[in-house]
């Protein structure tokens, strides 16, 4: 539709109809009139509102969506199609690894391909908008939603957000592309104590320097929508925060797309204690520029009154409504309200062999090798007698919490994948134990995700495992968190592997067996007490439907692992938050000696994490040498070239992620001890040597200065290039304006 026609349509709408565009209801309001009576009555939502509401939440499927859209259009006087939105965070039917795994690939180009697949599959099932990607920066693994994030570094986050948004959206004229909604704006990843929905409180400098850039990367790359966060920002919940939603998002960043409140967040303004009632909540949210009210009836019930009694300017509603109509128009819904959706195409698109192939590559680039004592890995096929143990060894539930729409039948387990690689006589299998000894703390969700339906006692299970382990040379043990122990509402204060599983590990250890541990988890777990008990550790995250294949590929050397962690693995719980780009303090701890009393350190634990940001092993061995700069003084407008020699000294082809960090030695405000500025993932043939050159300009040196201006400052800088945030070669330069 031309913008003129859109304007004409808009002008025809009554105030009530415009407000209805701002209302997002869940599927039950549309799918079945009988079911919908309950929630409609409860929320005070009339048939008229349903018939004019602008969008639908979490309904999916070509047939269902066609049906709802067509019925809706029959009743909708203005023939404005509904927008269908859902949470497709890291895969619809072809589920990829959780985002914390995806970022461990350090391969935004590959992740772009994954998000194109996500768009293609989701749109084939009728969706128009996905609530993805998550741009929340995180530093605290107690928070269950770290699984949805890209880790602790703001630059790396932004690079991935760019590739995810462009992968999802491309050109929306193409029906296989989907509008992307960045979330949760802002700073949702920094709740105090890592407790879900808890308060966030930080300086504006920290917010701008570290937490906002990834959301901004989404805006700069054209994301169509932004979702508010549940938390407060400087004392005001995001959903009612005018400074955040209007001054920063609209005025500073120039965002012209749609904003949406997270689930019932408009209602929660009352619970936060910032609005006294629904009337005030509606006022705060609309004044903060929140266009869509997800899952409450507050906009539908109060906005009209607010206009009528002169509390708010009708123009606010006009602006919001127009933004939503523009998005519908961009998606081509006025020409084809179904965007070409049909069941046949859906069937051919979902979980195709090509999609599975990419999912396998993505998983293998996301899984991190954390330990490989005496090069126990890769294993030789059909040589040693292998015993497969643990509750995750033959478990299809390795998709992570947000794979709501997936079908676990599509998952390949580790056992299935290994059986395809080696002869049966070399394999033994027992589960050994269940995931948890008690599911009650997970409420109704716990049992849902439990897969233990047998009546075998805990003791018998363990004994069976021990018996088969006796006859084997190597034990592959797949342990980890229950899916429901991470994700939304999955905050924990104990980040160790559940006790029942540790018991199994300890029993096997006593038998003096070689152990390869595969860990499934939505977060970095605390591995201090188990790391020395095992010979190899593969950190699989929740790796998606091709996870089993990717793990087997790595175990047997068909794939050389290349992933590196993007969130520090704490040494113990008391260290949290622990992250690589901290400040120096006035008394940095340079030594772990007990005499270093009055320095910034713990008496009972090191300052460093167990595994630092950027860490991960390969079957190849890489050597770094000859770090050199093309000049010692960088002037504004010039380019500093930083070169390093990297050699694969092994006979195994492999990929290495070369990382460049910078330290601004003196600033008008203190600067981190290191900040990631560049990285490059490259493949090396056996014995191959490569000279890698990174380019640094003034832009890379900018930060929020004392006066909050984003700019550079003259002075000394240190460069670090290496294989992870701790193991680097260093050089120095001076920057002059
Ligand atoms: C609440 C979550 O915070 C958000 O990420 C999600 O998109 C909405 N629910 C909708 O399901």
List descriptors.
737 residues; alpha/beta; TIM Barrel; Rossmann fold; Immunoglobulin-like; eight-stranded parallel beta sheet; 26 strands; globular; binds 1-deoxynojirimycin
Characterization of this structure:
- The chain contains 24 helices and 26 strands.
- It has 737 residues and is an alpha/beta fold.
- Among the domains are: 159 residues, TIM Barrel (Alpha-Beta Barrel), CATH 3.20.20.300; 205 residues, Glycoside hydrolase family 3 C-terminal domain (Rossmann fold); 117 residues, Immunoglobulins (Immunoglobulin-like), CATH 2.60.40.10.
- The strands form six sheets. An eight-stranded parallel β-sheet has the order 9-6-5-4-3-2-1-10.
- Helix 23 links the parallel strand 15 and strand 16.
- The longest helix has 17 residues.
- It starts with a helix and ends with a strand.
- The mean pLDDT is 96.
- The structure holds 1-deoxynojirimycin.
- 1-deoxynojirimycin (NOJ) binds next to loops.
> How far from one another are the termini?
50 Å
User: Order of strands in the sheet with the most strands?
Assistant: 9-6-5-4-3-2-1-10
Bound ligands, each once: 1-deoxynojirimycin
Q: Return the CATH topology of one domain.
A: Rossmann fold
Secondary structure elements and pairings:
Layout: H1 3-12, H2 15-21, E1 23-26, H3 28-31, H4 33-43, H5 47-52, E2 55-57, H6 62-75, E3 83-86, H7 99-104, H8 108-124, E4 129-130, H9 154-169, E5 179-185, H10 204-211, H11 213-220, E6 225-228, E7 232-233, E8 236-237, H12 242-252, E9 258-260, H13 265-272, H14 278-287, E10 293-294, H15 298-308, H16 314-330, H17 343-349, H18 353-366, E11 368-372, E12 386-389, H19 414-419, E13 427-430, H20 443-449, H21 458-470, E14 474-480, H22 499-510, E15 514-520, H23 528-531, E16 536-539, H24 547-555, E17 622-629, E18 633-635, E19 640-648, E20 654-664, E21 675-684, E22 689-696, E23 703-704, E24 710-711, E25 715-722, E26 728-736
Parallel strand pairs: 1-2, 1-10, 2-3, 3-4, 4-5, 5-6, 6-9, 12-13, 12-14, 14-15, 15-16, 18-26
Antiparallel strand pairs: 7-8, 11-16, 17-19, 19-22, 20-21, 20-25, 23-24, 25-26
Helix pairs in contact: 1-16, 2-15, 2-16, 8-9, 8-17, 8-18, 9-11, 13-14, 14-15, 18-24
Bound molecules: 1-deoxynojirimycin.
């Amino acid at each position: 539709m031309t913008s003129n026609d859109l304007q004409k349509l808009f002008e025809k709408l009554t105030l009530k109809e415009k407000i209805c565009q701002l209302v997002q209801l869940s599927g039950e309001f549309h799918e079945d009139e009988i079911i919908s009576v309950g929630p409609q009555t409860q929320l005070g939502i009339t048939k008229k509102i349903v018939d004019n509401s602008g969008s639908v939440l979490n309904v999916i499927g070509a047939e269902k969506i066609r049906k709802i859209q067509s019925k809706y259009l029959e009743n909708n006087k203005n023939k404005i199609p509904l927008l269908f939105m859902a949470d497709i965070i890291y895969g619809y039917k072809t589920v990829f690894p959780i985002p914390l795994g995806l970022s461990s690939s350090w391969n935004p180009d590959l992740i772009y391909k994954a998000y194109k697949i996500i768009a293609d599959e989701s749109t084939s099932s009728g969706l128009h908008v996905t609530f993805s990607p998550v741009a929340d920066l995180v530093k605290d693994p107690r928070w269950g939603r770290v699984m949805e994030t890209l880790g602790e570094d703001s630059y790396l986050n932004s690079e991935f957000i760019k590739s995810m948004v462009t992968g999802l959206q491309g050109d929306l004229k193409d029906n296989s592309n989907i509008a992307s909604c960045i979330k949760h704006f802002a700073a949702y990843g920094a709740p105090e104590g890592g407790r879900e929905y808890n308060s966030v409180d930080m300086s504006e400098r920290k917010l701008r320097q570290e937490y906002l850039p990834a959301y901004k990367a989404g805006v700069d790359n054209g994301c169509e929508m932004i979702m508010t966060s549940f938390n407060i920002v400087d004392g005001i919940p995001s959903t009612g925060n005018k400074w955040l939603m209007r001054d920063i998002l609209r005025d500073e960043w120039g965002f012209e797309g749609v904003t949406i409140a997270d689930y019932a967040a408009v209602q929660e303004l009352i619970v936060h204690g910032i609005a006294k009632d629904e009337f005030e909540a509606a006022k705060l949210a609309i004044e903060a520029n929140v266009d869509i009210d997800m899952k409450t009836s507050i906009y539908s019930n109060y906005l009209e009154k607010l206009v009528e009694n002169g509390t708010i300017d009708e123009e606010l509603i006009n602006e919001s409504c127009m933004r939503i109509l523009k998005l519908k128009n961009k998606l081509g819904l006025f020409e084809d309200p179904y965007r070409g959706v049909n069941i046949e195409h859906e069937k051919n698109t979902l979980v195709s062999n090509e999609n599975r192939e990419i999912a396998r590559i993505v998983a293998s680039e996301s899984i991190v090798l954390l330990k490989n004592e005496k090069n126990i890995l890769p294993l030789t096929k059909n040589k040693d007698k292998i015993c497969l143990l643990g509750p995750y060894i033959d478990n299809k539930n390795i998709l992570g919490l947000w794979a709501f729409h997936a079908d676990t039948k599509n998952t390949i387990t580790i056992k299935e994948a290994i059986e395809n690689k080696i002869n049966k006589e070399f394999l033994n299998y027992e589960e050994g134990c269940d995931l948890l000894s008690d599911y009650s703390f997970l409420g109704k969700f716990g049992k849902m995700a439990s897969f233990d339906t047998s009546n075998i006692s805990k003791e018998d299970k363990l004994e069976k495992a021990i018996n088969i382990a006796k006859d084997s040379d190597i034990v592959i043990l797949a342990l980890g968190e229950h899916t429901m122990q991470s994700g939304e509402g999955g905050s924990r204060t104990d980040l160790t592997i559940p006790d029942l599983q540790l018991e199994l590990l300890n029993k096997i250890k006593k038998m003096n067996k070689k152990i390869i541990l595969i860990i499934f988890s939505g977060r970095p777990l605390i591995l201090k007490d188990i790391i020395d008990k095992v010979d190899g550790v593969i950190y699989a995250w929740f790796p998606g439907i091709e996870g089993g294949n990717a793990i087997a590929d790595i175990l047997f050397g068909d794939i050389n692992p290349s992933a590196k962690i993007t969130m520090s693995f704490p040494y113990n719980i008391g260290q949290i938050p622990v992250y690589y780009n901290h400040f120096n303090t006035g008394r940095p701890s340079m030594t772990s000696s007990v005499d270093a009393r009055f320095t910034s350190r713990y008496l009972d634990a090191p300052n460093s994490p167990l595994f630092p940001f950027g860490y991960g092993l390969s079957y190849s061995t890489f050597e770094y040498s000859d770090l050199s700069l093309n000049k010692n003084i960088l002037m504004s407008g010039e380019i500093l070239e930083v070169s390093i020699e990297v050699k694969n000294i092994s006979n195994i082809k492999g990929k290495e992620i070369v990382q460049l960090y910078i330290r601004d030695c003196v600033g008008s405000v203190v600067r981190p001890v290191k900040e990631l500025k560049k990285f490059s993932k490259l493949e090396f043939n056996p014995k191959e040597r490569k000279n890698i050159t990174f380019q640094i300009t003034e832009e890379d040196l900018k930060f929020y200065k004392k006066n909050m201006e984003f700019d550079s400052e003259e002075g000394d800088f240190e460069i670090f290039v290496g294989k992870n945030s701790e193991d680097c070669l260093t050089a120095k330069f001076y920057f002059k304006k």
